[in-house]
């Protein structure tokens, strides 16, 4: 029982849909729905509430009863602009026992393994369902998956969700959570020889960033999770824009920050610190003009993933994978969102994260074979 003949074909089909996060994924979803229909699976869409031409898709195979398995991955990929590819990123190539193409590792390789397994799932006497749960907008902060994960948690009540981000088929049970956003500072322009007549948005932003630096330093002695590199929470400012001229007090400044917190650390605590500093600076700004101010705009929050606490489940997965211990990873995935929606969630997927987002992105064929094998054995042990 292998699906190896099929996964190459499925991956080539998926790569041919250029589903960069800012474009529609509806053609790809329709393609999967057509495949699912051939095997008697039920499809449910969870459309983008912002009206974008994007949707999450749940493909359910087996009886519609509570419990069962969720196999999940995202349909979107990162852009190829500015990268030097040695061929068409949207036409899969095979080279040195690897498949090349945008999304090969992140994470159409896993989706292709799920789709290749579908006919095998259909042929099993499933006692509980298998749900393939495919999301959109993962690469822009996991902003699409929420309603689908909630529906699964409330209605399908699966006993396990496997998120297939690249782990080289290791069991990953913990990762950091991410929160990202912009801080907008509005000042008042004035000639730079007269600083008291205006509010310098760049100088205020610098004060706020200095506070973020202090928070970052303190995180080194905050909560830690062994196995994540680095084991403590981090916060960074990675982008800044402000000012219009060398001798005018800046009217506007905005900067982008991201924090990656270990399970057990508190986003609210960090945001509280950032807000407290803003609250200290604002009265003096408003004394010059009531239009001045500081606004924090949280763009997305990805909850951290902590171990489920179900040792028997972990032991079963490790045995199926031929591994001895679970791992933790520094990058965020949608697994934290599934866990928050009320189901045990783990990350297990083919390929290595180092290949994600790269020009000439590729995945080892052997990794996809290992994944396909795992999916069939997991289905046999969990739901049939
Ligand atoms: Zn990914």
Salient structural properties:
alpha/beta, Alpha-Beta Plaits, binds zinc ion, 15 strands, 34% helix, Aminopeptidase, six-stranded mixed beta sheet, 384 residues
Can you tell me about this structure?
The protein folds into 2 domains: 249 residues, 3-Layer(aba) Sandwich (Aminopeptidase); 126 residues, Alpha-Beta Plaits, CATH 3.30.70.360. It contains 9 helices and 15 strands. The strands form 4 sheets. It has a 6-stranded mixed sheet, with helices on both faces. A 4-stranded antiparallel sheet has the order 10-11-9-12, with helices on one face. A hairpin with a 2-residue loop joins β4 and β5. The radius of gyration is 23 Å and the shape is elongated. The two termini are 15 Å apart.
SSE arrangement:
Layout: H1 4-15, H2 26-38, E1 42-47, E2 55-61, E3 69-74, E4 93-95, E5 98-100, H3 104-123, E6 130-135, H4 146-156, E7 160-163, E8 172-175, E9 177-186, H5 201-219, E10 234-242, E11 252-261, H6 267-288, E12 293-302, H7 311-321, E13 327-329, H8 335-340, E14 345-347, E15 362-364, H9 365-382
Parallel strand pairs: 3-6, 3-7, 7-14, 8-13
Antiparallel strand pairs: 1-2, 2-6, 4-5, 5-15, 9-11, 9-12, 10-11
Helix pairs in contact: 1-3, 3-9, 5-6
Bound molecules: zinc ion.
Residues 74, 106-107, 138, 165 line the site of zinc ion.
